[in-house]
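The methods section describes the discrete structure representation at length, but only in general terms. The central task, working out the structure tokens from the amino acid sequence alone, is never made concrete. Nothing conveys this as quickly as seeing an actual entry. For illustration, here is how one protein appears when written out as sequence plus structure tokens:
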Amino acid sequence: MPPGILTNAVSLSAEKVELSPANTGFMLIATALVMVMTPALAFFYGGMVRVKSVLNMLMMSFISLGLVTVLWVLYGFSLAFGTDHGSVIGWSGDYLGLSGIGLTELWDGYSIPVYVFAAFQLMFAILTPALISGALADRVKFSAWALFIVLWVTVVYFPVAHWVWGAGGWLFELGVIDFAGGTAVHINAGAAALGVLFVVGKRIGFKKDPMRPHSLPLVMLGAGLLWFGWFGFNAGSWLGNDDGVGAVAFLNTQVATGAAMLGWLAYEKLRHGSFTTLGAASGAVAGLVAITPACGSVSPLGAIAIGIIAGVLCAMAVGLKYRFNYDDSLDVVGVHLVGGVVGSLLIGFFATGGVQSDAKGLFYGGGLAQLGKQSVGVVCVLLYSLVISFILAKVVDLVMGFRVSEDEELAGVDQAAHAETAYDYGGTGGGTALARTAAPAPGSGSGSGDTPAQEAEESTAPASQAGSSDQAQGGTPGKAKKVDA
């Protein structure tokens, strides 16, 4: 859990703490791992969209690396982790511009410098708005998205981070357990995605045209890098490595992710008849999301249960967009919102009371008290993010328009926003080897009338693979009844 630890922090802060080179080095590595998660998310999302929107999808994640970094230094860290004001927001003048912080000044109660803690938390702040972008694929203005990020992190993420993790934050003081971001990151982003969708609307051709992933290998690469980076995300959130809690968080991350992947694939096989690569990748991400709030409070057996439950429920949830007619392009709501809710609530059942804190869940003799606290955290963050995100998106839409034009959407956002395409099948300087070998022999006459470059493009076109959204519609890979992915 990034800063405010529940019970163990009390004993730590009571002792004189000195800078630990080991913990500082460990946290710098964890910080770098969390940073990798944003490019990994770009790969994961980029592979799931159509060819004409790949670069835009990548850029919607990458721009967060620039914007949020600058805002965090200017005022974001102060709002999230400055001195508490009314249990709803932080503010410290010394944190403005990170200019009043001593070189070896330690984060209160811990053996790492404030600068290291600020850098670690920055990576969380960068990743969270990037998660929202998957719901908006194919149809929003890049400039409007950038403005939305600035507004959203300022009005939503920074305050919510203070509620959950800041000393004095009201959810932290209530005793809500969120080790690494089930509420502050995943529920926050998933609810925001839903709020923005109500403003942006559906893609042209939603539920009618095939919108399959263009590169499942890219999806698998992104999922693998997310899995790798998530060890820094979760194990690093104890802010040190002295007492074994970080080791438990690390192991639980691995265990829950593997279990969730198996749960998603089992559901997929029973429901749709196939084990798909996209199902494996999506199941792994669902497990990572669900174990994030719980990795420091449950046992490995509890992590297995959380993973399986999250894998199955998230696999079921991705089809809700067709039932309720909202176009969540890459299932941000189905995976991050639902996965975050599942993981946060299951703490109330599976918390052992012997890892992060002494808070116990229902199955360990703790009754319903912790479940009640978790429910308050889930509902309040969800509603706040949903409503405020809707309002902010509406403001952006009124000021500059959130969506691209119909012609630009049909042609592809890559060309409209970035004047580039992800893949150049034609090649330059006389063509590529692929184009030359694809050319028909003189007189052979394929009868298609295609140029070599066109034939090369057709040969590399994505197969009729099913995405998580397609699977929820009852199709199987390769069948014509597929409508969307």
